[in-house]
Specification:
The protein has helices at 12-21, 33-40, 49-61, 93-103, 122-133, 155-161, 173-181, 194-225, 229-236, 259-266, 272-295, 322-332, 355-359, 379-382, 400-405; strands at 2-6, 25-29, 64-67, 76-79, 85-86, 89-90, 111-114, 142-145, 164-168, 189-193, 303-307, 336-340, 364-367, 390-393, 409-412, 416-418. By secondary structure, it is an alpha/beta fold. The chain has three domains: 2-187, 3-Layer(aba) Sandwich (Rossmann fold), CATH 3.40.50.720; 202-278, N-(1-d-carboxylethyl)-l-norvaline Dehydrogenase, domain 2 (Orthogonal Bundle); 283-418, 3-Layer(aba) Sandwich (Rossmann fold), CATH 3.40.50. The chain has an eight-stranded mixed beta sheet with strand order 3-2-1-4-7-8-9-10, sandwiched between helices. Strands 12-11-13-14-15-16 form a six-stranded mixed beta sheet. Helix 4 packs parallel to helix 5 (122-133) and helix 8 (194-225) crosses helix 10. It is elongated and about 75 Å long.
């Protein structure tokens, strides 16, 4: 069986590599020639090392080949292209373009799989529409939606071990695709219809968004009540049917802040809880801004050092990062900002090269991503660099007592304020 994977991004590339290493003949195509050039030259642009190693091995095996033009006549096509939002609405332009290109090259009997996360009903509307526009009878093509279900930072393991949902348009379609994914997927593969498969993926990320919104409301409530939200959550989670997530400065990444919008756009009148949760999480950068303003008024030259450009700990992904939104709010109010992240390379503005440069002359330090690399930060070493000693910890990451002992006023989301203690020796 010959398979063409369309889109060699963070999902398409490891999927193509795993299929190839599972014994399938795979052709990889991407509309960006820079991606293809980098893959041919060792895949240096791929930051997740297990994915890079997997791709290199697959290319070396000869079962994964890269092409500069989308081929015709493959037995199966798997579309793995992004689905961002544009003005709070799903942007399906990449999916539509890929579907049109593939439809012109399909032969009867082919398998057509859409992996991109999409609103319910998209696979039928876009893929079937593209086939008909190209003069291809949709009844002669097996049409499937198989959404990816992985997390950046652990893609290889999760692709191999996570359960998969495969939705088919006609009887037998899903089973045919399931057999293909079984060449590398060791998790349970469940088959269903197209819309149920589409909905299940979007529901997963919407559930997490709602859960995080609940945790964020708990955090703000606990501050008002003088309670430590993390202790309260830990105690609540001792109940076997309770699993409250942790609060934070907002929700980022490519999936969780975006997928709920797919459901909202499908039926705004019956998704009130989803919309309310989105508003709670979207306002969190404003809450953090308010705490910063309470510490440091936005007078001329007030400087805020933001630690962490990534949307969560120990990844380099800055898409939809709460840091970006908070920084925009700070700049709008006249603050000077510096952002330091030892992992991220791409951000909307230039990153500061070192921690010391970010903190030098700052009036507040704000922790936004709890990278392991930040765990060794010594507040006693940073204290002399700061113009004012203030810490805003949005992840309950730093030990507040040590920072107050170093002379910092500390605010921790969900715990509130701790005043500085007399400056003592780090020894």
């Amino acid at each position: 069986m010959s398979v063409c994977v369309v889109g060699l991004g963070y999902i398409g590339l490891p999927t193509a590599a795993m299929l190839a290493l599972g014994g399938v003949e795979v052709v990889g195509y991407d509309v960006d020639p820079r991606v293809l050039a980098s893959l041919r030259d060792g895949a240096a642009h791929v930051k997740e090392s297990p994915v890079r190693a997997l791709a290199v091995d697959a290319l070396a095996s000869g079962r994964l080949t890269l092409v500069d033009e989308l081929p015709a006549g493959s037995d199966a096509y798997i579309i793995c292209v992004p689905t961002p939002t544009l003005e709070r609405q799903p942007d399906l332009s990449h999916v539509e373009a890929a579907a049109r290109d593939v439809a012109r090259r399909l032969v009867p009997g082919a398998l057509l799989v859409l992996e991109s996360t999409v609103p319910p009903g998209t696979t039928e509307r876009v893929l079937v529409g593209a086939l008909r526009a190209a003069g291809v009878d949709p009844e002669q093509v097996a049409i499937v939606h198989c959404p990816e279900r992985v997390i950046p930072g652990d893609i290889v393991r999760e692709l191999r071990e996570n359960a998969r949902v495969v939705g088919g348009r006609m009887p037998g379609d899903a089973e045919r695709a399931a057999a293909l994914y079984a060449t590398f997927c060791k998790g349970r593969i469940s088959t269903t219809d197209l819309v149920t498969a589409e909905l299940s993926k979007v529901m997963e990320n919407t559930y997490r968004d709602v859960n995080i919104a609940l945790a964020n409301e708990f955090a703000l409530l606990c501050e008002e009540l003088g309670v430590d939200v993390y202790e309260a959550i830990a105690l609540a989670n001792q109940h076997p049917r309770v699993d409250i997530l942790h609060p934070g400065p907002g929700v980022g990444g490519h999936c969780i802040p975006i997928d709920p919008q797919f459901l909202v756009s499908a039926h705004p009148l019956v998704t009130e809880l989803i919309q309310a949760s989105r508003r709670v999480n979207e306002r969190m950068p404003h809450i953090i801004l308010r705490r910063i303003v309470e510490l440091v008024p936005p007078d001329s030259g007030a400087c805020v050092a933001l630690l962490g450009a990534a949307y969560k700990a120990n990844v380099d992904d800055t898409r939809e990062s709460p840091t970006e939104y908070l920084e925009a709010l700070l700049l709008e109010r006249g603050y000077v900002t510096r952002v330091y992240d030892p992992l991220a390379e791409r951000y909307v503005r230039p990153l500061t090269a070192t921690l010391e440069q970010a903190v030098q002359g700052s009036d507040a330090i704000v922790l936004l991503a709890g990278h392991d690399a930040f765990a060794g930060i010594d507040p006693y070493a940073l204290a002399p660099l700061c113009r004012r000693r203030n810490l805003v910890d949005t992840r309950a990451f730093f030990p507040a007592q040590r920072w107050t002992e170093a002379g910092f006023t500390v605010y921790t989301l969900g715990r509130g304020w701790v005043s500085p203690q007399p400056l003592t020796s780090s020894a």
